[in-house]
Design brief:
The chain is α/β, with parallel strands linked by helices. It contains ten helices and 13 strands. The protein has two domains: about 5-175, Peroxisomal Thiolase, Chain A, domain 1; about 180-325, Thiolase/Chalcone synthase (Peroxisomal Thiolase, Chain A, domain 1, 3-Layer(aba) Sandwich).
């Protein structure tokens, strides 16, 4: 795309409540050593009973707007990437709009699991290509722990809750979104699912126990292979499309699924460890919030600096995967 898409502001939010590996030892048959050596995670943030996905999203949105020196009233569009909305209807984007105190905007959710933010980012680029005057709020927000079975030690140790947001325009100062590339393979969707509550899996009736298919179910080993292969592949594609090579990359921010995947992507892509940003030890896998949360944090702590070429990449259920190239 030849037009400039400007990333005017970034924001993030995680709930105050935390769940450490030591606390998980009291809930399920696991240990801090087992969790950390396999995932790199030490702690994750958990939404309180009073918090929904929209609450996390609004906090991140307000920070992004403040960072962009903009008011909510200036927004024209809100796009939320999430697979854990407050409800099936209304959309999380509609709830966010109401909580920001505005109405009449074009708002909608995108369901691409952990790739949700980058899918939403590409939607923002399309909106801005058609409407140069638009001000688009893009959010990745999840309360994944609401869909976790805390009797399943293979999944309950991995996920946390959080939100990240960005404001995009055609004008103003800020990093440029050079390109976004999306891909998918629906034939592999069975390897990572949350079927319960969908039309293919009827709701539990009053008095019936909640079934396992209401929670995240995954084939970890198969997902690992596909995640590493897909993320490195889409990164190579976006660099080739933009006349760049891996040696041009100053910072790589992969989806924060677990440390083994992050490390494998960096190694296979031949990016030095000091150029790979990770915060998975402090947040766990926050799904669609993972990329914007990490990007916002990396900018704030000067891991990303002016002039840097930043490569983002994600992988999620569906399967979906994506990459984005940013020039700071």
């Amino acid at each position: 795309m030849s037009i400039d898409i400007v990333l005017r502001g970034l924001g993030r939010y995680v709930p105050e409540k935390t769940l450490t590996n030591a606390a998980l030892e009291k809930i399920v048959d696991t240990s801090d050593e087992w969790i950390f050596t396999r995932t790199g995670i030490r702690v994750r943030h958990i939404a309180s009973e009073e918090q929904n996905t929209s609450d996390l999203a609004v906090e991140a949105a307000r920070q992004a707007l403040a960072n962009a020196n903009m008011e909510a009233e200036e927004l024209t569009h809100i796009v939320v990437g999430t697979f854990t909305p407050d409800a099936m209807v209304p959309s999380c984007a509609c709830v966010v709009e109401e909580k920001l105190g505005i109405k009449g905007r074009a708002v909608y959710d995108i369901a691409a699991a952990c790739s949700g933010f980058l899918y939403a980012l590409e939607n923002a680029r399309a909106i801005l290509a058609l409407h140069p005057e638009a001000r688009v709020l893009v959010i990745g927000a999840e309360t994944v722990t609401r869909r976790i079975n805390f009797e399943d030690r293979t999944t309950c140790v991995l996920f946390g809750d959080g939100a990240g947001a960005a404001v995009l325009t055609r004008d103003g100062e800020g990093p440029k979104v050079l390109d976004v590339k999306l891909s998918s393979d629906g034939s592999l969707g069975r390897l990572l699912t949350v079927n319960g509550g969908g039309s293919c899996s009827s709701y539990s009736r009053p008095g019936e126990p909640i079934r396992e298919d209401y929670f995240v179910q995954m084939e970890g080993r198969e997902i690992f292979k596909h995640a590493v292969r897909s993320m490195t592949g889409v990164c190579n594609e976006i660099l080739e499309d933009n006349g760049r090579t891996r040696h041009d990359i100053d910072v790589l921010i992969p989806h924060q699924a677990n440390w083994r995947i992050i490390d494998a992507v960096g190694r296979k892509f031949d990016v030095p460890p000091e150029k790979v940003y990770s915060n998975v030890d402090r947040y766990g896998n926050t799904s669609a919030a993972s990329i914007p949360l990490a990007l916002s944090e990396a900018v704030d702590n000067d891991f990303v600096k002016d002039g840097d070429l930043v490569l983002l990449t994600s992988f999620g259920g569906g399967f979906t995967w994506a990459s984005a190239l940013l020039q700071f």
